[in-house]
Amino acid sequence: MEYFHIDESGFTGYDLLNPEQRFQGTSAVSISDDEAARLIKEFFPRLQAPELKYQSLARRQSYRKPLIELQCIVLSQFKCTTCVADKRFLLILMFLDYAVEPFYFKRQMDFYEDGQNFSLASLLWRVGTTLFGPGAFDQILAAFQRATKEKSPPALRTLVEAVRAADWNQLREALGPLALAAPECLGAIATPGVSTDAALVLLQALITRMEVQSGGPYEARHDQSENLRRYHELLRRYIDHKENAEFIHSKIARLRFPLKLTSVVQVDSKTSPAVQIADVLVGAAVEAVNTLTGQRQGVLDPGEVLSLYAADQLIHYLPSSDFAEQKCLRSGSQASEMIDYFTRHFGDGAT
């Protein structure tokens, strides 16, 4: 049996507008606890702490070189995947999924064709703060987030009012459906199972890679923290789902059920060196993205950290103005079918 160990960083539940934690990440690494313990002892022979924690180690100048060296060995010799997401960008993608796409679907238009939803989300991420009036788009996103969580008529009305108060005609393709209070969009937002919790998106990304990397049945192990409880619930649902289904998400990502993943186990990170290795990977990756975007200054060279990853080891949900690249990457995507399927089977309250 193969074991993938998972850890996360930046989890804030349904709230994707937390200014202090702009990025969320998760890492999976296929390594045994014995091998992980050997590497920790090799690179941090004087470590006195009960467990390896990236944030604690990075504060010490003497540990920064070993942190890079450890990641180099792990990423070059073991099966690894790290996913990092700009949470505001994810929220905009979700806004398009539920507050916009149903309007086009009803009119038999493929909103996801060639990844145009990603291109529109990137455009909104870059210009939305000024295009619709000062602060208007952020108010819309906050209202959408709240309406998706509460699913109440007052929250939905507040969302529509926020859109109508903005200069929504500047980009009717994105805000027009809600400005018209399209019932299909309001119904999608109020659907049980629809959530702005980014855990589902990041786990999907990890699983697409773990399924490819694993040679056969495998087990996922993660820490017992409150943040990872949501991951555990979702993984359990994935494992229990025995229906045959396959979705193409992009040219490099597809997902097939039933999964090769057979079990998920919560472990104490203090007694799992392998989970501690996953903590180092995701901690360094999230810090690198924070540094590159000017969110906060990290201690490791972000270029050096990210250069350690092979192309198929790093997944990111970040805005991109290279629309041609997005079109090429997501040509043939079954995003619409995949979103409907996951909402129906794996969303909150789904059975």
Lay out the secondary structure.
Elements: E1 2-9, E2 23-30, H1 33-43, H2 54-58, H3 61-77, E3 79-86, H4 87-99, H5 101-106, H6 116-131, H7 136-150, H8 153-165, H9 172-179, H10 183-189, H11 199-213, E4 218-223, H12 229-240, E5 245-250, E6 253-257, E7 261-267, H13 273-292, H14 302-307, E8 314-317, H15 323-329, H16 335-346
Parallel strand pairs: 1-4, 3-8, 4-7
Antiparallel strand pairs: 1-2, 2-3, 5-6
Helix pairs in contact: 1-13, 4-6, 7-8
Give an account of the 3D structure.
The protein has helices at 33-43, 54-58, 61-77, 87-99, 101-106, 116-131, 136-150, 153-165, 172-179, 183-189, 199-213, 229-240, 273-292, 302-307, 323-329, 335-346; strands at residues 2-9, 23-30, 79-86, 218-223, 245-250, 253-257, 261-267, 314-317. It has 351 residues and is of the alpha/beta class. The chain starts with a strand and ends in a 5-residue tail after the last helix. The longest helix has 20 residues, at 273-292. The chain has 16 helices and eight strands. The model has no long low-confidence stretch (mean pLDDT 91). The protein is globular and about 65 Å long. Helix content is 52%, strand content 15%. The strands form two sheets. The protein has a six-stranded mixed beta sheet, with helices on both faces. A two-stranded antiparallel sheet has the order 5-6. Helix 4 crosses helix 6 (116-131). It folds into two domains: 2-87 and 196-346, Ribonuclease H-like superfamily/Ribonuclease H (Nucleotidyltransferase, domain 5, 2-Layer Sandwich); 88-189, no CATH class.
